[in-house]
Design goal:
By secondary structure, the chain is of the alpha/beta class. The chain folds into 2 domains: 9-118, 3-Layer(aba) Sandwich (Cobalt-precorrin-4 Transmethylase, domain 1); 121-243, 2-Layer Sandwich (Methyltransferase, Cobalt-precorrin-4 Transmethylase, Domain 2), CATH 3.30.950. The chain has 8 helices and 13 strands. The N and C termini lie far apart (58 Å). The mean pLDDT is 95. The structure holds S-adenosyl-L-homocysteine.
């Protein structure tokens, strides 16, 4: 165990959805002061190399190991930024870092800050109009870290409560069937006319925003670069936009 060194710190930062202009000045400042940047390979690739900065890209499936390595570096006096896309508290590294702190009072005494970022669903909603303008719920459709029946229960409950819905990690090559099931559940609960927006690669040159009805939606419209937004019963189109009115019903 390394002795705590008060000059070290750890920032857990969100890089936003892709566009550099959506990186907050606070995050830019932390990156400028950092000695080390830790994170999933494509996110670390968004940080410009410079003398005095060591980049530590790693694979996505070792979040707790990555968090421990970052904490260890901060404890030894490094200025460490752990990067996530979007916001670090939304299905990302912040929780992994706090989990790694459990049972480690030495790490708990470190200077640790969470620096928020623009999460994908907010950038997507802005690109589409204002589909999250009333109450909404947000669900991660990946069953890597939770069982599918729990996802199904939450999805159904949120749809019945007439929340607008945002879905992260909707569909990957390794689990193509989950999103098809989710669409079927949504059609049962919300009907075929409900609006659904597929927002892909928001704020990047590949951005594509497509709004259809649930009746016309197909699983192939989503991939891992897509955040999916389903309207509530009042969500409607106006011109090229989609919005949810401020009042319910
Ligand atoms: N912490 C991130 C989410 C990580 S989970 C955030 O706050 O945005 C990864 C999922 O986020 C992807 O599968 C996709 O659903 C969504 N996502 C991330 N960036 C996106 C973008 N630029 N456009 C659309 N969806 C995005």
């Amino acid at each position: 165990m390394t002795a705590p060194n008060q000059t070290g710190w750890l920032a857990i930062a969100g890089l936003g959805p892709g566009d550099d202009r959506m990186v907050t000045p606070e995050v830019t400042q932390a990156l400028a002061q950092a000695t080390d940047v830790v994170g999933y390979i494509p996110y670390v690739a968004r940080v410009a190399p410079r003398p005095g900065l060591t980049l530590h890209p790693s694979d996505n499936r070792v979040e707790l190991d990555r968090a421990r390595a970052a904490l260890d570096m901060a404890a030894s006096g490094k200025r460490v930024v752990v990067v996530s896309s979007g916001d670090p508290g939304v299905f990302a590294m912040a929780s992994a870092v706090f989990e790694a702190l459990e049972g480690r009072p030495d790490w708990q005494a470190l200077d640790i800050r969470v620096l928020p970022g623009i999460t994908a669903m907010l950038a997507a909603a802005a690109a589409a109009g204002a589909p999250l303008g009333h109450d909404f719920a947000c669900i991660n459709l990946s069953d890597n870290l939770k069982p599918w029946p729990l996802i199904e229960t939450r999805l159904r409950a949120a749809a019945r409560a007439d929340f607008a819905l945002a879905f992260y990690n909707p569909r990957s090559a390794s689990r193509p069937e989950g999103f098809a099931k989710a669409l079927q559940t949504l059609r049962e609960e919300c009907g075929a006319d409900r609006l659904i927006t597929f927002a892909r690669a928001v704020s990047t040159p590949d951005q594509r925003i497509t709004t259809v009805t649930l009746g016309d939606a197909t699983p192939e419209m989503a991939d891992m670069r897509t955040v999916v937004i389903v309207g509530n019963s009042a969500t409607r189109r106006v011109g090229p936009w989609v919005y949810s009115p401020r009042s319910a019903g």
